Amino acid sequence: MKEALARLRKFRDDRDWKQFHNPKDLSLALSIEASELLELFLWKSPEQADIDKVKEELADVVAYALLLADSYELNLEQIVLDKIAKNEQKYPVSKAKGTAKKYTEL
Amino acid sequence: MKEALARLRKFRDDRDWKQFHNPKDLSLALSIEASELLELFLWKSPEQADIDKVKEELADVVAYALLLADSYELNLEQIVLDKIAKNEQKYPVSKAKGTAKKYTEL
Amino acid sequence: MKEALARLRKFRDDRDWKQFHNPKDLSLALSIEASELLELFLWKSPEQADIDKVKEELADVVAYALLLADSYELNLEQIVLDKIAKNEQKYPVSKAKGTAKKYTEL
Amino acid sequence: MKEALARLRKFRDDRDWKQFHNPKDLSLALSIEASELLELFLWKSPEQADIDKVKEELADVVAYALLLADSYELNLEQIVLDKIAKNEQKYPVSKAKGTAKKYTEL
Q1: Rounded Cα–Cα distance for residues B55 and B45 (Å)
Q2: Which of B28, B57, C49, D56 has the maximum number of C-beta atoms within 10 A of its C-beta?
Q3: Tens digits of per-residue pLDDT, C49-87?
Q4: Cα C56 vs. chain centroid, distance in angstroms?
Q5: What does the DSSP 8-state code read for residue C63?
Q6: Integer Cα distance of A2 and A92 in angstroms
Q7: At residue B33, does pLDDT exceed 90?
């Protein structure tokens, strides 16, 4: 994701937008984009969404995820790897296999 | 993100969870995680969020973004790069510099 | 909704919470509660949600809607009636009947 | 909210939309509208949102809340009153006064 992050920083700085990018509003933006992604599935069965639009909305989500991680000087792939390790504890295979229950209900 | 995606696939398959991971519910999960991230800023100023929790919720968002992209056989970095190219058209520097207005209002 | 609003105001003021209730954070809270409601349907078919939990999360959404409307001195029922009148223009029966398309696509 | 609900039912039935209105998609729609409301505050201070747009997005949220409650034959005001009673237990004045902490942290 190094190239994407470099491009996003340049895009932001060319427009002088860093002034707006505090972590609270970046999280808000990410959540709004996630909701626009969700809207592509509204009133539809899962396979009916328009893939080209999914691409764009999903890209927007990830763009804000990269900018938010960057604002805390976090490496996005590293925090995902750390979280998977945590989830392996929360959802042991023996209990979680084949069930969609939340870890609090296992 | 290759390692993260490989680990996520294994995590999912070890638990036999692919059956639940249709694109609609993956988008729903992504949106719910984005909202949990947002909650870390609720009633707070931007700098008051707990960074360790931000890490975890942001990781959850990106994990679902990776799984959703994978379900469509999309490369997450590539779609971000494609979207930046589009946004450079939507938000020309000459119009967008220093303003947080949406492209529809520029 | 007069009784509910009166009770919410008292609940808030007894706890000295008005200081936190600016419209931005109230909207954030509303959105977070909407997402908790949504989580009750995650990985599930529509009829599988736990109704008692739906009640509670839906109540939280409406509580914040009442407080947000109140912060602008808006009457919640009135704005819904006004919006329905608008939607009758946006979605004429002749075009919208039987289709889930957005008005921009009709 | 009786008049609003009656108008919403008629609006829906005139367009033959009940077929789309399962509780999962209604919750999805509610969450999407909540996010559109939130977008009015993005990159802004709380007092900078456009009140006319807040009115409309908030109305959309409440419209879906009414339809969702109706699909379960719930009375929206009653469930809010029931939830306030619950919250009085979760957030006792002696512990919650003047703090924005979640009940799990009190």
Answers
A1: 18
A2: B28
A3: 999 999 999 999 999 999 999 999 999 999 999 999 999
A4: 13
A5: H
A6: 33
A7: yes
B62/A80 Cβ within 8 A: yes
**Is the CB of D81 less than 8 angstroms away from the CB of C4?**
yes
**Residue A21 in tokens:** 């990018």
pLDDT digits (tens, 9 = 90+) for C23-52: 999 999 999 999 999 999 999 999 999 999
CA–CA gap between residue B39 and residue A40 (Å, rounded): 24
C30: its two tokens: 């509303």
The CA distance from B31 to A30, in Å, is 9
Looking up tokens 């909407």 gives C34
Predicted TM-score (pTM) of this structure: 0.96
User: How far is the CA of A68 from the CAs of B81, C28, C89, D89, in angstroms?
Assistant: 17, 18, 40, 36
Query: What integer pLDDT is reported at residue C58 of this predicted model?
Result: 98
Is B71 within 8 Å of A58 (Cβ atoms)?
no
Tokens for C23?
Answer: 């419209």
Using the structure block, give the residue that is written with the tokens 């890209």. A59
From the CA of B26, how many Å to the nearest CA of chain C?
8
Of A20, A25, A42, the CB nearest to D28: A42
Chain D CB contacts of A20 under 8 Å are: 43
Place of tokens 């809207």: A39
Rounded to whole angstroms, the Cα distance separating A4 from A10 reads 10
pLDDT tens track for D79-90? 999 999 999 999
> Which amino acid is it at C42?
L
Give the pLDDT confidence score for residue A102 in this predicted structure. Answer: 86
Q: Above 90 in pLDDT, residue A72?
A: yes
